[in-house]
Design a protein that fits this description.
By secondary structure, the protein is mainly alpha-helical. The protein has one domain (about 1-50). It has two helices and no strands. The longest helix is centred in the middle third of the chain and has 22 residues, at about 15-35. The chain is elongated and about 40 Å long.
């Protein structure tokens, strides 16, 4: 996040976009680890907890 702030202060938009994409990738990978069934069953990854 420090790099994002530094890039923003320097108005380095390309770097900000690059870092934001990296953060998004990291967030998705963490979600996949913490919630492996998220793509099949939105929410908590457990089909029994998602009626419908």
């Amino acid at each position: 996040l420090r790099e994002v702030l530094a890039a923003g202060a320097a108005r380095n938009w390309d770097k900000m976009i690059e870092l934001a994409q990296e953060l998004e990738e990291l967030a998705r990978s963490q979600k996949a680890i913490l919630d492996p069934g998220a793509d099949e069953f939105p929410g908590d990854g457990h089909p029994d907890a998602n009626p419908g």
